[in-house]
Specification:
Number of strands: 0
Shape: rod-shaped
Number of helices: 2
Strand content: under 5%
Structural class: mainly alpha
């Protein structure tokens, strides 16, 4: 894996033989060293996970707003029903 100017992290990864062969083949076809290919794959994975986390947070906020809107509409319906009863 490439060294940054500040940190050098070493990982030991154990892969099944068939997975290793696929990764090795993909690295070769991309013109990368095996360690660089794994580093790139890890970066892409973490970027995708970050995006999913952001999306999940936005969906949770949206769910809360939908629940609030549902409650407001329900209360308005009850008020309307009471007004109809007064007429």
């Amino acid at each position: 894996m490439t060294e940054s100017s500040m940190d050098n992290v070493q990982l030991e990864i154990t892969l099944r033989r068939d997975v290793f062969l696929l990764v090795e083949s993909s690295a070769l076809s991309d013109g990368l060293e095996l360690s660089q290919w794994v580093e790139n794959a890890l970066k892409f994975y973490l970027d995708d996970r970050g995006d999913l986390s952001s999306i999940n947070k936005r969906l949770a906020r949206l769910d809360a707003r939908v629940d609030l809107l549902d409650e407001v509409l329900s209360r308005l319906q009850r008020i309307e029903d009471r007004l109809d009863m007064l007429d």
